[in-house]
Amino acid sequence: MGSKELNSTINLVNGSTGDPVLYIDYPGRDDAFLFDAGENYTLSLKQLSDLEAVLISHHHVDHFIGFDRVIRANIDAKKTLSVYGPAGSIQKIYDRIKSYEYPFFPFQQIVIKVTEIHETELHRGVLECRRRFPKPIIEILPRENLIIHENDQLLIEAELVDHPVPCLNFSLTEKAGYHPDSQKLKEGVLRPGRWIQEVLDSAKQGTPKKKSIEIQGGIFQIQTLLDQYFVHQPASKVTYITDTAYSETSKPKLFELAKKATRLYCDSFYLSKHQKQADKYRHMTALQAAELAKEAKVEQLILIHFSGRYQGQYHLLLEEAQTIFPQAQAIF
């Protein structure tokens, strides 16, 4: 992967042949991200309870059927869960939540903040468990740039793309700086916990050598922890592209999302010999995914969302992409 590495644990939950679902987690921190909510039964409720945000590309069943498990995993939490999606997301998520009965215990304080991404506006509605999920009042905000979500470690951008229904594609950029090293944490003597965020906060202040913190009954120097459990990296990017035509209107948007990505997960629904179907149903071919990866100068291409029509011959999609982008991979 060249000079850039990703500091997250990434799980393409159903591989290249199932519902496109991408789970990105950061060790020791409750800030996982879920790109699409299709079938996700292989993710534990604990993994889903770590979510900071859910990014919904669109509301077709293979991208939305698993949202109920997200609700179940987080309903007892005292947290704000951000959900981003295209037009109609607020009403659809409200309908899903209200379809269940809840005991409404005092400890159930989940707040679900739903933001719809429109071309020039953001529509936002807040669903609050402690208020028994009343119908949200919609706040309309100007959309000033592509960034829809940001914290100290990363930012997420979104573009509306070319599909028969409103559909979003995303990129997640890990900012330059210190990041937890999942392998070092796995092998180290300290258990991951809140201390990871404390160390990162201290490092951002620029004076880590002057500080120490208590962890699990011991006192540790910040700089020592940075050396032993963290890595200092340049910015890196993960791009998630699904359910879009590779059309003249979408190409510039897809290029900007994918440009110099460390890893591109890209819709490869059809072989190029079925280009007419791809154009009709607004999907990409494996060849087009490879062309995008090459033009955008990405480091790694993972093909996703293979059509079931190729069952038993999925290797043909990978082989086609490799004629243009030899590093292309698929997960079977």
Task: Provide a concise account of the structure shown.
The chain is an alpha/beta fold and 332 residues long.
Q: Can you walk me through this structure?
A:
This protein folds into 2 domains: 9-175 and 235-330, Ribonuclease Z/Hydroxyacylglutathione hydrolase-like (Metallo-beta-lactamase, Chain A, 4-Layer Sandwich), CATH 3.60.15.10; 177-233, no CATH class. It has helices spanning 45-49, 61-64, 67-74, 89-98, 182-187, 195-204, 222-229, 251-258, 275-281, 286-295, 315-322, and strands at 9-12, 22-25, 32-35, 51-55, 80-85, 111-117, 121-128, 139-142, 147-150, 154-160, 168-174, 177-180, 212-215, 218-221, 230-233, 236-241, 263-267, 301-304, 329-330. The chain contains 11 helices and 19 strands. The longest helix has 10 residues, at 89-98. The chain is an alpha/beta fold. The strands form 4 sheets. The chain has an 8-stranded mixed sheet with strand order 1-2-3-4-5-6-7-8. It has a 7-stranded mixed sheet with strand order 9-10-11-16-17-18-19. A hairpin with a 3-residue loop joins strand 6 and strand 7 (121-128).
